[in-house]
Amino acid sequence: MAYETRFDGRRFDEIRPIQAKAGIIKRAVGSGWFKIGNTEAYAAVYGPREMFPKFKQNPETGVLRCNYNMMPFSSAGERVRPGPSRRSKEIGMVTERALRPVLDLSEFPNAVVDVYIELPQTDAGTRCAGICAASIALADAGIPMKDMVCAISAGKVEDKILVDLNYEEDSHEQGVDIPVAVLHNSKQIALLQMDGEISPEDLRRAIELAKNASDQIYEAQKAALKDKFLLKE
Amino acid sequence: MGEIKVKDKDVVVPGETLAVGMDFLPSYGTYREGEKILSSRLGLVNVEGKVIKLVPLSGVYQPKKGDTIIGQVVEILLTGWRINTNSAYPAVLNMKDATSEFIPRGADLTKFFCIGDYVMVTIINVTSQNLVDLTMKDAGLRKLMGGRIINVGANKVPRIIGKQGSMVSMIKQYTNCRILVGQNGVVWVQGEDPAKELLAINTIKKIEQEAHFVGLTDRIKEFLEAHK
Amino acid sequence: MIEELRNEIISLLSKGVRLDGRAPDEYRPVVIETGVSKNAEGSAKVKIGETEVIAGVKLEIMTPYPDSADQGSLMVNVELFPMSSPEFESGPPDINSIELARITDRGIRESKCIDTKKLCITPGEKAWMVVIDVCTLNDAGNLFDAIALAATAALKSAVYPAYDGEKLDYKKKTSERLPLKGLPVTVTVFKYGDHFVVDPSSEEDKTYDARLTVSVLENGNICSLQKGGDEAVNTEDIFSMIDLARVKSKELRKFM
User: Fold this and answer.
1) What ipTM was reported for this prediction?
2) What residues of B are in contact with residue C8 (Cβ under 8 Å)?
3) Is C249 helix (H, G, I), strand (E, B) or coil?
4) Are the Cβ atoms of A73 and C43 closer than 8 angstroms?
5) Which C residues 162-221 touch A at CB under 8 Å?
6) What is the pLDDT along chain B (228 residues), one digit of tens a residue?
7) Does the CB of C39 have a partner CB in chain A at under 8 Å?
8) Does the domain spanning B68-144 belong to CATH 2.40.50.140?
9) Beta bridge partners of B12
10) Which subunits count as partners of chain C given 3+ CB pairs below 8 Å?
11) What's the DSSP call for residue C207?
12) Is B147's Cβ below 8 Å from some Cβ in A?
């Protein structure tokens, strides 16, 4: 069977419309908002601040701590009981891992930089949207960061390699979902996960699609941060 | 030869290329990768000759030796007080550094400062682990009574103070308020007239919003004129 | 210093102003946006000044409780997200978010704006459960009123998902609204010395003597009350606070 046209009519290398903003959560030190299609993520950064519990402090460097959560009413389908789940804890951890390569927390021994990611609305690609929002938030918070991190899902549905899967594509029986995060300048991979069966050649093509799409994400993140500092009369 | 890719006062995001070429010197907030100089945080570009650095636009205060700050007492210790510095690192003010009076051992330290009091202090030392020691013995340092406290971004403090204190003097003139600006972004305002206190506070908040724009002094003067 | 802050607030109030220049009975700008979360059956984002919260309504099919076999049910949950304030911690709901949830729940439940009998599908077998979740995005003071307003606005805009008697299809929303009548409006009045204030900012929120959360119906009657704060309040003051709440509720009602 061939997947001729995407459910929403996009080209296979086309990502959904994106929007991004910075500084929308006023009490946080830094914050970001990222929307791709119908998936929307807020991220807020607090820190560097004192780390509790004390035994988790690292005397050599500050520590990054990421918390990922979907609001109970955010999914297509049933309500999700509030509170951390194993899935959300794992996503928090891979998000941390995706952001660490660009951060330099050596000026902040014993301190923590907390990132909170919340999604009010989801349509697949949630961990990627979270990472994009978190990247904006960390930059907004003035954390020493050598590059931005851009994340997007790629994958395969039936016989087609494509980028930015929506919920229908992600839950397709013959769908392979590959969330990828790259550092913008070097295009090095900071997050890579996959579920489904795929040949190495197809995997390579999917990753290339993701890397190409990352530039559009970077432009949106950059515009969001610069836009915050435009004088609005 | 090389090329600068940005203008002075441009806002740049992490990882942006600021210049290409080996004769430029990367300074605060920038780093070199091969031929390029890139930004290492969100900031405002500052080019002086061949030196490229960033002025931070955000970020939590990092305690520095010599800074005079306004902190809040959060704990009474055996021989001093723990002070919140508005950073990731609490600081300690020892009895012996608090005042030129002699404080006997076992004295009731709350007679001097209680939890919740705001104090103006100077940082005498910051260790490698960012532990901070304070003193209150220099001129002008003291407990702050009355007035109002507002928090601004620490990186905006230079603009709030202005060249040789010109900005804060202007605010004091128009509002008749006493104003003390801590390097850590904690500002104390005290005036006779609550409306003037509020004007001083709103002016400071306006500077915080527009700190990075050209012509700030004129805009603030206009604002103060319009509301006096 | 909390004492000093309180004294400053009271001294300003005796001159008719507050720390940010507002009048004691003045709300910051209120903005309500519905339909902000497409997957929810109903949703609303509310901003009061810089305080921002988002509420979502989900409908589920439940088996009615044995003692109310012909009724569906309503549940209100509030999440104080750590992202919205440096003072909120991760973890299970603390007593403040529990109080907020229960106050919001009571306001809606006791207004009888939802007749739970109308939520019944088949007595003893199937009924609708309406779950409202309110999440805080930014806390700049007065979460009580923002949360209550978001919950009611989300409820008002909620529609049933497609249900054919067997299967629930959340992806197809019908255009049938919930059976609502007479929505409550909640106003929390804060007392500082002899002064009454609405919509405190974060600074004011730190040091009030007492507060009274009042849910007001369209006809001016009240359907729920909650007193908070550590000081005891005399009866006349309680009624002054209720009066102020009733007046302000009319203003807030216009936003819905």
Assistant:
1) 0.92
2) 146, 148
3) helix
4) yes
5) 170-171, 202
6) 678 889 888 999 999 999 999 999 999 999 999 999 999 999 999 999 999 999 999 999 999 999 999 999 999 998 899 999 999 998 999 988 888 777 777 778 778 888 989 999 999 999 988 899 999 998 889 999 888 999 999 999 999 999 999 999 999 999 999 999 999 999 999 998 888 999 999 999 999 988 888 888 999 999 999 987
7) yes
8) yes
9) B43
10) A, B
11) S
12) no
The lowest-confidence range among A65-69, A123-127, A193-197, C184-188 is A193-197
User: HEC profile for C47-110?
Assistant: EECCEEEEEEEEEEEECCCHHHCCCCEEEEEEECCHHHCCCCCCCCCCHHHHHHHHHHHHHHHH
Set of chain C residues whose Cβ sits within 8 Å of the Cβ of B202: 21
The dihedral sign for the CA sequence C217, C221, C225, C227: positive
Instruction: Please state the domain count of chain C.
Output: 1
Work out the pLDDT band at C97, boundaries 50, 70, 90.
confident
Domain boundaries A18-226, corresponding CATH code: 3.30.230.70
Residue linked to tokens 């102003």: C17
φ/ψ of C16, rounded to 5, equals 85, 10
User: Shortest CB distance from B13 goes to which of A139, A183, A231?
Assistant: A139
Inter-chain CB pairs, A–C, below 8 Å = 96
Q: What are phi and psi of C159, to 5 degrees?
A: -125, 160
Closest approach of chain C CAs to the CA of A65, in angstroms? 12
**Chain position carrying tokens 């919950």:** C151
* List of residues 6+ apart from B43 with CB closer than 8 A: A142, B11, B12, B29, B54, B55, B56, B57
Category of A138 on φ-ψ map: left (φ > 0), alpha (ψ -120 to 50) or beta: alpha
Look up the pTM and report it: 0.95
Residue C58: which of A72, A118, A123 has the nearest Cβ? A72
Note the CATH number of domain B3-56: 2.40.50.100
Q: Which residues of B touch C21 (CB under 8 A)?
A: 195, 198, 202
Phi and psi at B210, nearest 5°, equal -115, 20
The ranges assigned to domains in chain B are: 3-56, 68-144, 148-226
CA torsion through residues C63, C67, C69, C72, sign: negative
On whether any CB of chain B is under 8 Å from the CB of C131, the answer is: no
Judging contacts by C-beta atoms under 8 Å, the chain A residues touching residue B212 are 229
Say yes or no: do domains B3-56 and B68-144 share a fold: yes
- Cβ distance B14 to A146 less than 8 Å, yes or no, reads yes
Mean pLDDT for chain C overall:
93
Supply the angle between the helices A86-99 and A126-140 in degrees, to the nearest 10: 50
B210 neighbourhood in chain A, CB within 8 Å: 231
Domain B148-226, CATH: 3.30.1370.10
| Residue of C39, C77, C155, C169 to mutate for A, most A C-beta atoms under 10 A | C39
Q: Could you give the CA distance from residue B42 to residue B38 in angstroms, rounded to a whole number?
A: 11
Do A217 and A152 touch, CB atoms closer than 8 A? Answer: yes
Domain CATH number, residue C200: 3.30.230.70
Chain-centroid distance of CA C49 in Å reads: 16
